[in-house]
Design goal:
elongated; mainly alpha
Length: 109
């Protein structure tokens, strides 16, 4: 940054991924967006309940709760994506020779 202060490093994306896999919405809480994690939990419960009511009686546990597992998978991917983007932005800003048109690189490159 131009004022000489360095931004703190974001949470490691793999740590967020591990937390999101172990406990739903915990990855979003680590990222500082707990409302987004709560939304995913809400839709997990709702779609899990709906697929439980719609699934046939002889369906497996995963088949009966397929809606919840779908939203759970989306939640994991979403938390990891946010963490990766934040980490990539932090790395880009930390480099003194970042991608900039102001550098001394020839204009044809």
């Amino acid at each position: 940054m131009s004022d000489g202060t360095a931004t703190p490093a974001p949470v490691n994306p793999y740590l967020v991924l591990g937390a999101a896999v172990i406990l739903p919405a915990s990855g979003h809480v680590m990222l500082g967006v707990p409302a987004r994690g709560l939304q995913f939990l809400f839709f997990m419960v709702i779609l899990g309940w709906i697929t439980t009511k719609l699934a046939p009686a002889d369906a497996s546990f995963i088949g009966r709760h397929a809606g919840a597992f779908l939203i759970y998978a989306f939640s994991i991917l979403d938390a990891y994506k946010i963490a990766r983007i934040r980490h990539a932005i932090w790395v880009h800003k930390a480099r003194p020779d970042g991608d900039s048109a102001e550098g001394d690189t020839p204009s044809n490159m």
